Amino acid sequence: MSALDVRNLGMAYGGTPILERVNLSVAPGDFCTIVGASGCGKSTFLRLLLSQERPTRGQILLDGENLPPEPTPDRGIVFQRYSVFPHLSVEDNLILCAEFAAAPLTGRFFGAKRRAARATVDSLLEQIGLAHARKRCPAQLSGGMQQRLAIAQALMMKPKVLLLDEPFGALDPGIRADMHELLLKLWDEMKMTVFMVTHDIGEAFKLGTRVLVFDKIRHDPHDPSAYGATITYDLPLERKRHVQPPETINELIATSEEIPAHA
Ligand SMILES: Nc1ncnc2c1ncn2[C@@H]1O[C@H](COP(=O)(O)OP(=O)(O)OP(=O)(O)O)[C@@H](O)[C@H]1O
Ligand SMILES: [Mg+2]
């Protein structure tokens, strides 16, 4: 588990601001769900947390230290789809993660290292319910099973922070409910700090201990791309878990008694 502090973060692409003045302090073990309009910068925010890109302004601190300048095993990420290697079996997909993290240039594990990686793979496969499918390739798995594999890949290096970008967006509702249970179980067992982007407000409320809403505070009617988005609402959820979740972001904001994050 890790604490994360985001200070005055800004991100622009080619001079166009996408995110501006994002401030956030996350306690170890928080489960932050992120909602906001399409294109407002949610995936960009995750890429910055992963160090896949560098911010134009501001700082991100992980346990009080500046984020490493490149992705490191302390942060794992799962995308909506296509993050597994199609030509490798379930277990080889997982072993490759460990090999890649340990030695991106030299490659394969042998001997004791390979046995240790296999032991981690075995326990992860049990945890995510894919032990029976370990020899199959992704094309022989259902969408839900592929996403289980993608989650297992992200967990292979025991990250302190797990980043999820609409991980269940392509799954049927029934399968999604199973994945929610799985994710909450893993979060509880592995004691991670989680950031999860979703378009589904119900999902954001069901899973999060905190919902972060990204939106623009300032608008220029003549130039829609003049300003970036920031966190406009930051809703702690513990005491609201029993409440019927709102269905849209506007309803969420309208019914919220919380003080807007930027106030
Ligand atoms: N590498 C890039 N170069 C230039 N512009 C980019 C780049 N990546 C993202 N953008 C722009 O930044 C904005 C935010 O993109 P981002 O993918 O973060 O949005 P999002 O909130 O995740 O949207 P969605 O909900 O549709 O996934 C978009 O306008 C996008 O076109
Ligand atoms: Mg996105």
Quick structural overview:
The chain is α/β, with parallel strands linked by helices.
Question: What can you tell me about this protein's structure?
Answer:
The protein is α/β, with parallel strands linked by helices. It is built from 7 helices and 10 strands. The protein folds into 2 domains: 179 residues, P-loop containing nucleotide triphosphate hydrolases (Rossmann fold), CATH 3.40.50.300; 76 residues, no CATH class. The chain has a 6-stranded mixed beta sheet, with helices on both faces. Strands 2-1-4-5 form a 4-stranded antiparallel beta sheet, with helices on one face. Helix 2 packs across helix 3 and helix 2 packs parallel to helix 4. The site of magnesium ion has 3 residues, from helix 1.
Distance between termini?
29 Å
Integer tally of domains: 2
SSE run: EEEHEEEHHHEHEHEEH
Radius of gyration: 19 Å
Q: State the CATH superfamily name of the largest domain.
A: P-loop containing nucleotide triphosphate hydrolases
Q: What structural category arises from helix and sheet content?
A: alpha/beta
Spatial strand sequence of the major β-sheet: 6-7-8-3-9-10
The helix tally amounts to 7
The CATH class designation of the largest domain is Alpha Beta
Tell me about the largest β-sheet: 6 strands, mixed
State which percent range the strand residues make up.
15-25%
